[in-house]
Specification:
Structural class: mainly alpha
Largest sheet: none
Number of helices: 2
Radius of gyration: 17 Å
Shape: rod-shaped
Strand content: under 5%
């Protein structure tokens, strides 16, 4: 059980790093102070946003699993 919890915690760290990286990329991609709107790569930013949504969903599931495992270990 502790092994599964450790795996979930590791997965959570990876997902948080992935999500933070995507947020940074999206923020840069939509920053009109850096890139004029007509030069923005909106389809690429939209794809990154889709990836961010999926990372968020995975993170929610992982956190739910971690909570369940922690309850079971008590």
């Amino acid at each position: 059980m502790r092994g599964k919890l450790a795996e979930a915690q590791d997965n959570q760290r990876k997902l948080l790093l992935k999500a933070e990286g995507l947020c940074t990329s999206i923020r840069r991609g939509l920053n009109t102070a850096l890139t004029p709107f007509n030069e923005m790569e909106i389809p690429q930013v939209a794809s990154q946003m889709d990836d961010l949504v999926m990372a968020w969903v995975e993170l929610q599931k992982t956190q739910s699993d971690m909570n369940r495992l922690e309850r079971e270990l008590r």
